[in-house]
Amino acid sequence: MLRFRRPAVFLSTLLLLVSLLSTASAGAAEPVRFAVPPWPGVTVKSTVVCQLLEALGYETHQEEIGPVIAYNSMGLDEVDVCLAGWTPQQNPMLEPLLEKGTLELLHENLGDALIGLCVPEYTYEAGVHSIADLDAHADKFNNTIYNIEAGSGMHTSVAEIIENDVAGLGDWEQIGSTTPMMLTQVGDMMKNGEWAVFGCWKPHWMNVVLDMKYLEAVPGSEVLVTTSKVYTVVRTGLDKDMPEVYAFLKRFEVPSSVQDGWIYAYGYKKQPVEEVAREWIVQNMDLVQPWFEGLHSVDGKPASDVLSAAFAQ
């Protein structure tokens, strides 16, 4: 009898192990699906997150789609994550789906985004600190605000400021063009030491390339000067389906200065996004490791150990 029990026990144990391994493999095979609007900062940010998850054994998939499609696709279980939840700008598209319960604003991954008007640093040092200071130096600015193209929200907001004579700007004009053209114009003026006031925002590579300062707002300028928070948006149920991915995403955040650098490298210097992401991870493991404290790879190893090995310098 004993001779027959041992093979039976061994066979049962083997079958149990196979079953467990199959279950684990099936879980690991489910990709983490990212919606990625075609914005340079979000492209790099998504690639950073995907490279970290892939190092831990997860499969990831990135789909370049806009936020409206992304958020609606979460309710259809076609998208898991989008790192581009700009608020309050996207509130009209997010709030109905939050009420419906198909998605969750998981965590603020960027908390200091800003839109406004900027001047060169030397102009700021000369005393122009606020939108209220512009009109006193109208001649130096040629009564002109440089901005992005007509039809954009920023252009419309500046037009409203001029129309309402906010801070005495009623006799000023606005020159709109594409972002590259505007920044080339302003950059050339700065090289010549000329004064310029222009539409600006962060995160963007302009914050890396140009020595510039953001002007303080005044009553009536709030149509343009706004702060934003960017959220990681996930489909409802991700916490149960991928708890460790969910836990990581709940911690993931970067300041706008980091995203400025990503946009500069990828959007301005035209480095491959995979290269930008990996270089940043390798050089910033001190920022990365706390996101994974207490978490594990797909095969159960401490995430910190796996990532240290995968991104060793």
UniProtKB/TrEMBL annotation:
Q: Which residue intervals define the domain ABC-type glycine betaine transport system substrate-binding in the entry?
A: 31-281
Q: Which UniProt keywords apply?
A: Signal
Query: From which domain of life does this come?
Result: Bacteria
Record's Gene Ontology CC terms?
ATP-binding cassette (ABC) transporter complex
Q: Tell whether Signal is among the UniProt keywords.
A: yes
Q: Where is the signal peptide?
A: 1-28
Indicate whether Signal appears among the record's keywords: yes
Give GO terms: molecular function aspect only: transmembrane transporter activity
Name the chain's protein: Glycine betaine/proline transport system substrate-binding protein
